[in-house]
Amino acid sequence: MTVASTGRTSVPVPVLDIGGTHVTAALVDPTTSHPVPSTVTRKPLVSHATADAILDTIALAALALPAEHGPCWGVAIPGPFDYATGIGRFAGVGKFESLSGIDVGAGLHQRLTGRSERLRFLNDADAFAMGEYGAGAAAGHDRVICLTLGTGVGSSFLSAGRPVHTGPLVPPSGHVHHLTVHGRPLEDTVSRRGIRTHYARLSAVAGDQHLPDVHEIAARAKKGEAAAAEAFRYAFDALGQALAPWIDHFEATAVVIGGSMAQSWDLIHPALTTGLASPDRPVVPVLPARQPEEAPLIGAAHWAQYTPGAP
Predict the structure, then answer these.
(1) Which residues are within 8 A (CB) of 184 and not within 5 positions of it... i.e. 6 or more apart?
(2) Rounded distance, CA 243 to CA 249, Å?
(3) pLDDT per position as a tens digit, 8-24
(4) Which range marks the domain in which residue 199 is found?
(5) What is the pLDDT of residues 63-81, one digit of tens each?
(6) 250 with 155: CB under 8 angstroms?
(7) Is the pLDDT of residue 135 over 80?
């Protein structure tokens, strides 16, 4: 799968990758399916700011791109979001709450005066997965599960390079954060919040002001601290247990891991593979992403060019 697979255009494809702390804008070269390095622009984004402030920041990154590009933008953004209409549904999730009920598509159209004919939105984990399928670790796998591990668990179930969101072969909406493990929602255990909470119990840390963040817990684990190592082991063993039945249902032949926590691969990989292990299932490889930064941009460009319909 490449952006240029149908040969429709040689004009660069404008894309946005919107996250909880930053927005990245780029032009993707349709002949290589990779972002043009000189165009990649990353700006900090405050997810609890007002709607206008958030949209202004996103537009500022977009308008920094060279003007010679196609009219249709691919926009990767986390959920909950109405991707068909471009309206935010973020109430009660702790980020982008000011965008709940806001027509993000219309707001960006207005700010990108003359620079956008259409905006095609997709889930950020789906964008990552499609990028890894086209130019990364998911390439060659007809059915693959891709996970992004950060503040929570993003996920995408790809069949022949397309996200699957419905049907009995995938979790509700095609996203694993809807699953439960140990009798609780998955992200109570597998998330920044979950790992820090479990570490606090294991190490008897009193108060959030003394509680290290996940990257520091990982550093402590690598130095041999037992409580830190157990916090990671418990979380990602649980993720493996929750994911294992869906690997069987979906008949996935690989699991690809990205996101900020993937930097602690030596802690995540053994725990996750242990959680997945079953004598009744062939070993399914768990692979690190090959294009962790570029994949969402590549996937968004593909979505912009080859997905019918747009808000």
Answers:
(1) none
(2) 10
(3) 558 999 999 999 889 99
(4) 138-288
(5) 999 999 999 999 999 999 9
(6) no
(7) yes
d(CA 26, CA 23): 10
Helix axes 192-203, 226-250, angle to 10 degrees: 140
Residue 311 domain-assigned (yes or no): no
> Is residue 89 included in any domain, yes or no?
yes
Check residue 211 and give its pLDDT: 87
State the Cα–Cα distance between residues 180 and 196, nearest whole angstrom: 19
* C-beta separation of 130 from 302 below 8 A: yes
Inside any domain, residue 132: no
Q: What is the pTM of this model?
A: 0.91
Nearest of 25, 27, 39 to residue 3 by alpha carbon: 27
Say how far apart CA 300 and CA 130 lie, in whole Å. Answer: 8
In a domain, 244, yes or no: yes
Helix/strand/coil percent split, the chain, to 5: 40, 20, 40
Mean pLDDT score, 246-275: 96
Residue 203: DSSP 8-state: H
CATH of residue 186's domain is 3.30.420.40
Burial of 81 from C-beta contacts in 10 A (0-12 / 13-18 / 19+): buried
294 pLDDT more than 90: yes
- Helix, strand or coil, per DSSP, at residue 215: helix
